[in-house]
Amino acid sequence: MIVAISILSTGQVYAQVAGATLTGTVKDASGGIIPNAQVAIRDVATAVTRTVSAGGAGLYTAPNLLPGIYEVRVTAAGFSTAVQKGVTLTVGLSRCLISPCRLGR
Fold it and tell me: Distance between CA 8 and CA 39 in Å, rounded?
């Protein structure tokens, strides 16, 4: 019944946003793109980790993250691990990070 009423309604409908989106680009120290890096996004409060892959252009996105404070860890073959702590996400926020990685371990 609710679905039928919603479909027939002529008023505006607003989506309810429950999470945040984290996007970013993985680059080396000179600004060059690092393709296919792994990005681990860990909620500090719950220790729940979501891992996404940066594509061939070094871009990644992680939608629908719960509000909170996160640690972002980027790994790529031939590069040291880059870690960014204290990344705060709030409801409806779309945040972009540029993660620089250095050669070596």
Answer: 43
